[in-house]
Amino acid sequence: MNTLLERLQTVEKRYEELTQILMDPSIANDIQKMTQASKEQASLEKAYNLYKEILDQIPEMIRGENISINEVQHDLELMTQWPRYGISLSWQSSEPEILENDGTLHTEKLEKNAYSQQICLTVRMSDGSWPEEYDLFVTVTPPLYTEKEQLIKDFADRLLQEEELQQEQQV
After folding, report:
1. Is pLDDT of 9 > 80?
2. Which residue has the higher pLDDT, 148 or 114?
3. How far is Cα 39 from Cα 75, in angstroms, rounded to an integer?
4. Helix 4-23, helix 31-62: angle, nearest 10
């Protein structure tokens, strides 16, 4: 799978190659080759610009209540359609037990270990004719609790433990 930068560089390189082909005076006599190169160049330019614009906007669009995708403590808003661009998106998380493919976040594992974790979200975008996959990295951090919130959480955890212990004793 190509990273975003690699894919954009590949498209850009091919676009430049086509520009050189079209500037070559010898192509002027080969209308078929010139037409083919022009169409490919226009297609690449349109796709490159569209996907770059979309990719630049995705982090802001999916962050939800989070400050940024580099400090994720709440669910992400992983959209599946972007009607403005006629694009469908599907997501795959490298760590679905922490961040599900629909953006639901489970920080319990992080809370116990008190560490952040970088997760790769692969987004597959398609306009129906040019499907591409890109990797987007997010950093999930354990939630920060105020002293009062931490006391309430600890109390609730203790109650749950006591309840489970009582249920075991009844069996």
Report:
1. no
2. 148
3. 42
4. 160
**Using CA atoms, how far apart are residues 73 and 70, in angstroms rounded to an integer?**
10
Tokens read off for 11:
């498209």
CA distance 106 to 68: 17
User: Distance between CA atoms of 41 and 108, rounded to whole angstroms?
Assistant: 49
CA trace torsion 127, 92, 71, 67 (10° rounding) = 30
pLDDT per position as a tens digit, 129-160: 667 788 999 999 887 767 887 788 788 888 88
Dist CA 154 CA 161 (whole Å): 10
105 class by beta-carbon count within 10 Å (0-12 exposed, 13-18 middle, 19+ buried): buried
